[in-house]
């Protein structure tokens, strides 16, 4: 894994950057993660996937905040 922290990648976001952040963290293609989210939405209980995405959107810090925090810590 190239990143050791999980964050939302707002540079490659479509909605919130959650899928792009997960793809960066697990070193996967972002399209694959987005397709998995869409496919998971069509399982019998799609509300759980939507709720999971929204929770991750709220909980995961953006990569901008992570970079600012690291820059301030290194100064």
From TrEMBL:
InterPro entries: Phageshock_PspC_N, PspC. It is found in: Cell membrane. Its main location: membrane. Keywords: Cell membrane, Membrane, Transmembrane, Transmembrane helix. Residues 5-62 form the Phage shock protein PspC N-terminal domain. It is a single-pass membrane protein. One of its GO terms (cellular component) is plasma membrane. The keyword Membrane applies. The chain crosses the membrane at residues 35-59. This is Phage shock protein PspC (Stress-responsive transcriptional regulator). It comes from Rhabdobacter roseus.
């Amino acid at each position: 894994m190239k990143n050791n922290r999980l964050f939302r990648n707002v540079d490659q976001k479509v909605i919130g950057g959650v899928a792009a952040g997960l793809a960066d963290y697990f070193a996967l293609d972002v399209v694959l993660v987005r397709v998995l989210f869409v496919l998971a939405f069509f399982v019998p209980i799609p509300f759980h996937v939507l709720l999971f995405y929204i929770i991750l959107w709220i909980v995961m810090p953006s990569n901008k905040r992570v970079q600012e925090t690291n820059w301030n810590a290194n100064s």
